[in-house]
Amino acid sequence: MSLLSSILLLPTASHAAPEASACSGKDCPTADVVQLVEKLKRPLPATTEYTEVRYVQMLGEPLKLRGDLEYKGASELGKRVVWPYEETTTIANGQVQIQRPGKPAKKFSLKRAPALAGFLESFTATLSGDAQRLAKSYTLHSETSGRHWQLQLVPRDPALARHIARVLISGRDTTPLCFEVEETGGDASVLLVADLAGAPLGGAPQREELQQLCAHAP
Amino acid sequence: MSLRARLGLLVVWLAVLAGLLWYVMTALKVSTDLRSFMPPARTPEQRLLLDEIGEGPGSRLLLLAIDGDEADTLAELSKQLAARVREDRRFVRVLNGENDMAALAQDLLPYRYLLAPTLDSQALDTGYLRDELQQRMQDLGSPAAAWLKPLLGRDPTLQMLALAEAWAPPNEPERYAEVWFSRDTSKALLLVETVAGGFDPAAQGEALQALDTYFHDVAKDTKAQLTVSGPGAFTVRINATTSAEANRIGLVDSIGFVTLLLIAYRRFGTVLAGALPLLSGGLAGMAALAVVFGGAHGITLAFGFTLIGVAQDYPIHLFSHLSRQRTPVEVARLLWPTLATGVASTCIAYLAFFASGVDGLEQLAVFTIVGLATAALTTRFGLVHLLGAEPHDAADSAWIAALWRRLAALPRPRWLAPLLSAAALAAIVFAPGAFWENNLAALTPAPPDLVARDTALRQELGAPDVRHLLVIEGADADAVLAASEKLDPLLAKLQADGAIAGYELPSRYLPSAATQRARQQKLPTADTLAAALSAAQQGLPFKPGAFADFLTDVEAARQLPLLDAATFGAGPLGLRLKAQLQPRDGHWIGLVSLVGVSDPAALVALAARPDVPAHLLDLKHASESLVAAYRTRVLYSLAAAALLLAAVVSFALRRRSRVLRVLLPMAVTTLLILAALRLGGVSLSLFHLIALVLAAGLGLDYALFFEHVEDDEHEQRRTLHAILVCSASTFLVFLLLALSSLPVLRAIGVTVSLGVAFNFVLALLLARPRREISHAG
Known about the structure:
The structure holds two protein chains of two kinds.
Chain A: H1 3-16, H2 31-38, E1 46-55, E2 63-73, E3 76-83, E4 87-92, E5 95-99, E6 106-109, H3 114-128, H4 131-137, E7 138-145, E8 148-155, H5 158-161, E9 164-172, E10 175-183, E11 188-193, H6 207-216
Antiparallel strand pairs in A: 1-2, 1-11, 2-3, 3-4, 4-5, 5-6, 7-8, 8-9, 9-10, 10-11
Helix pairs in contact in A: 1-3
Chain B: H1 3-27, E1 29-31, H2 44-52, E2 61-67, H3 71-86, E3 91-95, H4 112-115, H5 118-121, H6 126-141, H7 145-152, H8 159-167, E4 174-176, E5 179-181, E6 187-194, H9 201-219, E7 225-229, H10 231-265, H11 268-273, H12 275-292, E8 295-297, H13 298-307, H14 313-321, H15 328-354, H16 359-386, H17 398-408, H18 416-430, H19 448-461, E9 464-474, H20 477-497, E10 502-504, H21 513-522, H22 526-537, H23 548-559, H24 565-570, H25 574-578, E11 581-584, E12 587-595, H26 600-608, E13 615-618, H27 619-653, H28 656-679, H29 686-707, H30 713-738, H31 743-767, H32 771-776
Parallel strand pairs in B: 1-8
Antiparallel strand pairs in B: 2-6, 2-7, 3-6, 4-5, 9-12, 9-13, 10-12, 11-12
Helix pairs in contact in B: 1-12, 3-9, 6-7, 6-22, 9-10, 10-30, 12-16, 13-16, 14-15, 14-30, 15-16, 15-27, 15-29, 18-28, 27-28, 28-29, 28-31, 29-30, 29-31, 30-31
C-alpha cells in the first residue's frame, strides 16, 4: 500500500487502535512534537474558510484564491474556490476531481498532484493528531515560541521528496493557522485558515510577509 | 528368413524411419493460420477477409484484466506490464488508459496544430488566446498545475491534451490512478493488439506466452492475477483443449487397440511390427509434403492422419491370413491383388482432390496417396519378411469357425440395398434442421464461462466489435484518409442514434492532406501571433517571454511539409495507424473499427448509400461464405473421386456383378450415415465429409475382401477374422472419439463409427458372392 493512501486512511485507523502505531529508533517523533500534534486533533467533519497564495515561477505575481475547505473524513477532502473564479476540487480514495462551471470535470490520481498530496497529508495529520504515524513518512521538527508554534515536515518517501521540499504548519495554541507547501522546483503556496482566512492582504503579498503573519498573528 | 536377417531388416527399416522423421522435422513447416487452408477468394468480401485484413482488427485484440490485489498495486502492475508490452514488436499497441504525452515524437510536436481539430472551429486570435490563458491561470491555481506546468510554455492552448483525447479509444473505461479499471475498481483493464491474426493459434500462443512472462516478471511479489480474453485467447485455449482431449482419447485408443491385436494374434512382436506400415506411411506422406509444398497446414495433417488410418487394416489382413501351410511371403502374394485393388482405387480417387485447386486439399491428396501407397507396399514387401514362421492361425479358432458358419447361413436379400437406399434418401431429404454447418467456430465452441467473461470485459473496455467492420478503399493513403473524414459525421450520427456505441477512423490519427493544409493556412504569421498573444496577456500575471516556445512552434508548423502516412508510421503511434491504413497491391485500404454494434441494419443501410465511401464487411458472413465455397470444392472433388474409384474398381474386377457387389455396400453405407446424422439433428461440416471419405475407404476394403473369397473354408474363416479385427479395432478407436465432449472430435468419431458398423454389416450381406451359399449349406 502506498504512503499516500496509508496516510489518508490514517485517522480512522488511529482512532480505532492508537497503540498499533508504535515506532522505533530515529523514526520516533520527539516528545514535544507528539505533544504538539496531539493537541491539534479535531472531530470530523471539519470545515474552514481559507485564503491561498500561490507563487508560480511562470507568473510575475502570485495568485490569490479564496474559498473553503471541508474535511469530511478518512480520505475525503473538498476544496472550493469561490474567488476570483469558481472551482471545486474533491479528493476521495486517492482520486482528484476538478469541476469548473460549464466545463467537463477533470479527474486524475492524487499521485499526479504532489503539492496537493503534501498539503493533504499535513492537513490530515494535524486533524487526526497521530504524531507517531506521521513520523513514519516525514522527518518532523517543531519550534514553539510563546503561544505560537511551527511544525516542519520533510518527506521521507523519495517519490514525494522529488516534488515536495517541505511542508510548514504554523499556528497558535491548538489551532493551525498556515500551511506552507514548498515544492522542489521553487514554486510554493501558502494557505491561511481559521483566524487568518479572512486576513486582508495586499495586491501581491510577498512570501516573507505571509510567513511573518503566520508566526506572529495576534 | 533367418532371425539375423529379420533383425537386420528391422534395424534398416527403423533407421530409414528415423531419417524420414529427421527430414520431416527439419523441412516441414506446419502452418496453423486458418487462411492458408482456405480456397482462393471469389467475392470482394472474401478477398478482404483472406488477403488483406486477416480476420479483422477486432480479432487481434486481447482483453486483459488484472485483479486479486489492492487497486494501487493493480494500477502499478498495469503500467509496468504496458511498458513491457510496448517494447515487444509482436504487439501493435497496448492501451491501459495512461495519457501518452510522448505520443508524438519530439520533432513532430509542431504538427499538433495540423493534427488536432481545434483550428477547424477556432483561430489563434486574441480572444481565443485570452480565454485559454485565463484557464491556464486557473490551472496553475489548481492541483492540476503539477503536471500542466511543464507543458504550458510551449503549449498554452493544450493542443497535446486535445490530441491525446482525440486519440483515446472511443468508449473509455473508468480510470483509477491514471489507468483503466472496472467500475467496481476490482480489476485493472488493458487492451492489447497483436500483430498476428486472431485465428492463428501458434502466433497467438506465442503472444499469450509473452504476456504471461511479462506479467510474472512484474507481479512476482503480489497476489495479482492476469486474465486474458479475446479471439486469440479463445483460439489458443480451444486448440489446447482439443489436442489434450484428442491425446487422451488417443492414449486410451492405443491401449485398447494393442490389447485387441494381442488377443487376436497372440504374438507381441507381430503386433509391434504391425505398427510399422502406418508409421512409414505417415512419415513418407509428411516427407512428400515437405518436398512438394515445403510445408503443410495443421488441418491437412489432422485430416490426413484420419484418412490414412485405413492403412492400419493392411497388416491386419496379412496377419489374419497367416497359417502354417504358407510362408508370410506367399500369403502376401495371394492377398496382394485384393489389397492392391483397394489401395490403388483409393489412391487414384484422391487424385480428384489434387485437381481441386485448393492448397489444403492438394496437400491432403499428396499426403494420403503417398501415405497409403507406402503403407501398402511396406506391408507387402517389408513387413512380411519380419514375421516369424510360427504364426497364430486364425482359422484354428473355434469361435471363428462357429461364427463363420452362422454368418454364411445369413440370407442375402436382393431388395435390401434398394430399400435401405430409398429409406435413407427419404430421411436425408425430409429430416428437419440445417443441412450444412457453415460456422467452423461452432465445431470448436468456446466454453460458456469464457464467453461470458469476454462479453463483460468487452463492455467495460468498449472494445471493437469482432464481426462488423467498415472498409474504405482508395488509390492512395490520402484518398482513404479523405474518405475517412467524410465518414466521420455519418458515423457520429449513427452513434448519436444509438446504432453503434463508438467507432475508430484512420483519419482520427492522421487527417488528410487537405484538412492539414486548411489548418496550416489558418495559422497566423509570427508577427500577428506575437501581437495577439501580447494583447491576450494584458492584465494577466504571466511573465513576459513565458510563451516563446509556443511562438516558435506555431511558426514551424506554418512551414512544415504536410504529415504523410510514411512519416506518421515511423512515430510512436505508427503501428496504430498501420493497423487501420494499409497499402495493398497498388491501392490502399482503411479499416474502420466499430464498437458496440446494436443495430447492424443501420450500418448496412449506411454502407449501401451511394455517397458513402466505404463498404460494410460482415466477417462472420464472409467466413461462412468462404466455408460454403470450400465445401462446394470438396463436394466436387468427392464426386470426381467417386467416379474415379468406380472406374478403377470396374477395371480391376471386370465383371459388372462383382463391381456392383463391391461398390454397393459403401454407397449404401454413405447414404445410411448421412441419414443417421440428419435424423440425429446434426448439420454437416467439412469434418463430417472427411470422415465419410474414410468410412468409404474402409467399406471398400471390407467389400473387396468379402467379395474375393477362396473356395477353401479355412481361408474364408481367415478373411472373416481379418475383417472382424479391422472393423472392431477401427470401431473401438472412433467410438471413443464419438463419445468426446468436443463437437469436432465427435463429428469424426460418430461418422466413422457408424460407417464401420454399416459397412461391416452391409459387406457381409451384399458383397459375398451368392455361389457361396450352396457351399455353406
